[in-house]
Inverse folding.
């Protein structure tokens, strides 16, 4: 496995990683193809006569089939091989909770996104006739708040995919890898908006993995859901709860505050473990409908304002135990506060 150097981190810029990449309004491309243009031989043989000589494309491409692909594209397996690499890469990314939230909402068109990435990588590696015509990197990533941590994780996932692809394409060299990074590394300023990885609650709390852990499950000591499960004042509401789905929906709800995914825009997860328990047909429900018929098995009453207060208290305890700074606790609790009159069914007039 290659070390994730600063140069390797720049590899993330190789790929257009958002649904906006399908927008062809931009006028720049995936990057200069200078590095992947086959070199012209230093000297040319003297002609032996004045007649027209047959063209030998092998001398230019090193490919006896006469393909006009550049050497890196050829080593990757041509445009088809580039497509295989992109498919492998997406598989790694979608399994990576640190970054997959950028893709798990209904505004992601995977077919269009994949086509754009194949064209981008194909042009960058010199595949014959391939031109990137989708959105510019700046336009595609603007407003997403991509952090340096996200950037590094995309790069690490691409390296994993590259190494897997190399297992079936032995002609790929370290020089090929370095050239791809060198050609495309200059796009970093157009992708990373949060250079210190702390501009949002989502980033400061620790992104999706930390939020999933904070929400937790029954038995995950100190987590929100475990606190609720042990809270006799409200645990009677949760006897029939699907806790896998609850974790996914509450995780999405928290990182919808200023993170990459949107609550209620769930999709059929490309990988079952990406967002378990939800689908396009069974998205996370709005607060009013999901709480309307809940009854506390301990007192046969619906949700009271005091119950809502206990729930918030259990969340604050979990956040404190997880080391979430007080300022961020206030932001998270503040985002949930306006939901009170959608959740409380007995005495909603008590909500602030």
């Amino acid at each position: 496995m290659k070390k994730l150097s600063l140069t390797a981190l720049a590899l993330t810029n190789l790929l257009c990683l958002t649904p906006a990449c399908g927008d062809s309004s931009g006028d720049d491309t995936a990057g200069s193809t200078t590095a992947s243009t086959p070199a012209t031989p230093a000297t040319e043989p003297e002609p032996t006569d004045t007649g027209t000589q047959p063209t030998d494309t092998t001398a230019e491409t090193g490919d006896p089939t006469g393909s006009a692909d550049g050497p890196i594209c050829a080593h990757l397996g041509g445009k088809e091989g580039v497509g295989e690499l992109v498919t492998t890469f997406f598989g790694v990314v979608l399994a990576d909770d640190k970054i997959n939230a950028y893709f798990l909402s209904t505004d992601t068109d995977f077919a269009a996104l994949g086509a754009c990435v194949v064209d981008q990588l194909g042009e960058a590696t010199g595949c014959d006739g391939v031109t990137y015509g989708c959105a510019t990197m700046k336009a595609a990533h603007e407003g997403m708040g991509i952090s340096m941590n996200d950037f590094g994780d995309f790069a690490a996932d691409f390296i994993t995919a590259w190494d897997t692809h190399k297992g079936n394409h032995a002609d790929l060299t370290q020089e090929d890898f370095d050239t791809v990074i060198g050609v495309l590394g200059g796009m970093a300023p157009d992708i990373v908006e949060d250079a210190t990885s702390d501009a949002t609650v989502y980033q400061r709390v620790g992104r999706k993995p930390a939020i999933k852990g904070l929400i937790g499950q029954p038995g995950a000591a100190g987590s929100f859901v475990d606190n609720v499960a042990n809270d006799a004042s409200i645990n009677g509401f949760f006897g029939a709860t699907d806790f896998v789905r609850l974790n996914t929906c509450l995780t999405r709800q928290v990182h919808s505050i200023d993170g990459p995914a949107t609550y209620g825009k769930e999709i059929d997860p490309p990988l079952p473990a990406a967002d378990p328990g939800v689908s396009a047909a069974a998205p996370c429900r709005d607060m009013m409908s999901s709480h309307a018929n809940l009854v506390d098995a301990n007192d046969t009453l619906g949700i009271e304002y005091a119950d809502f207060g206990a729930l918030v208290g259990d969340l604050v305890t979990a956040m404190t135990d997880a080391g979430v700074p007080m300022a961020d606790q206030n932001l998270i609790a503040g985002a949930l506060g306006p939901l009170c009159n959608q959740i409380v069914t007995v005495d909603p007039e008590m909500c602030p």
Q: What stands out?
A: Residues 1-14, 24-64 have pLDDT under 50 and may be disordered. The chain has 17 helices and no strands. Residues 91 and 271 are 8 Å apart (CA to CA). The domain at 6-38+69-191 is CATH 1.10.490.10 (Globin-like).
